[in-house]
Task: inverse folding
């Protein structure tokens, strides 16, 4: 007998990961935008250079995109139901 997968727990973790990683993407994006006049070797925050923040921004974006795709897969039935509802009521 296998254990039943708790879909509500998975959805909760996915939602938390979405919030966390997209917040990282937004905050590093703002940081990079407002420090574009600095050289790549000048530490900006926490002793991390602009070039390193660019790399972090990229990898946070990759992780956030993967979690978003997983979120769409997990909630596919609800997504299609909502789209059908919106199209039907126009």
Result:
């Amino acid at each position: 007998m296998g254990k039943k997968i708790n879909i509500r727990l998975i959805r909760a973790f996915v939602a938390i990961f979405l919030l966390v990683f997209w917040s990282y993407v937004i905050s590093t994006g703002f940081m990079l935008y407002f420090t574009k006049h600095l050289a790549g070797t000048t530490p900006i925050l926490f002793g991390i250079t602009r070039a390193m923040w660019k790399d972090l921004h990229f990898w946070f974006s990759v992780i956030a995109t993967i979690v978003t795709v997983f979120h769409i897969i997990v909630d596919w039935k609800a997504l299609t139901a909502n789209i059908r509802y919106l199209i039907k009521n126009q």
Remarks:
- Residues 7-88 form one domain.
- The first strand starts at residue 43 and ends at 45.
